């Protein structure tokens, strides 16, 4: 196994990490922006008002996108583990 192979595996893992985390992060960011605008307009500064909607949105996104995320992760791990004998030999 050479350095190029290690860097390729690391790059693929980072791209997969970004791809899997992006739906949750974007939805939580959007909900946080909407809640912040609502708090600024109404001048309500309650910490739970910002936390609870983000938590609910994250759970909903994970419920919807969870099977896709899990399938993608398992496929990546299977490909990586199956390629180990070719890398060592």
TrEMBL record:
Compartments where found: Cell membrane; Bacterial flagellum basal body
Predominant subcellular localization, coarse grouping: membrane
Lineage, broadest ranks: Bacteria, Pseudomonadati, Pseudomonadota, Betaproteobacteria, Burkholderiales
Record Pfam families: Bac_export_3
InterPro entries: Bac_export_3, FliQ
Assigned keywords, A-Z: Bacterial flagellum, Cell membrane, Cell projection, Cilium, Flagellum, Membrane, Transmembrane, Transmembrane helix
PANTHER family noted in UniProt: FLAGELLAR BIOSYNTHETIC PROTEIN FLIQ
Chain ranges passing through the membrane: 12-35, 55-77
Name under which the protein is recorded: Flagellar biosynthetic protein FliQ
Gene designation: fliQ
Role this protein plays: Role in flagellar biosynthesis.
Family: Belongs to the FliQ/MopD/SpaQ family.
GO biological process terms on file: bacterial-type flagellum assembly; protein secretion
Superkingdom, taxonomy of origin: Bacteria
Organism: Xenophilus arseniciresistens
Membrane topology: Multi-pass membrane protein
GO cellular component, as recorded: bacterial-type flagellum basal body; plasma membrane
């Amino acid at each position: 196994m050479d350095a190029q192979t290690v860097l390729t595996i690391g790059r693929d893992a980072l791209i997969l990490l970004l791809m899997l985390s992006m739906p949750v992060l974007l939805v939580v960011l959007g909900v946080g922006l909407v809640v912040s605008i609502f708090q600024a307009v109404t001048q309500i500064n309650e910490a739970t008002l910002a936390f609870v909607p983000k938590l609910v949105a994250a759970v909903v996104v994970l419920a919807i996108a969870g099977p896709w995320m899990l399938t993608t992760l398992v496929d990546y791990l299977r490909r990586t583990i199956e390629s180990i004998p070719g890398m060592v030999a």
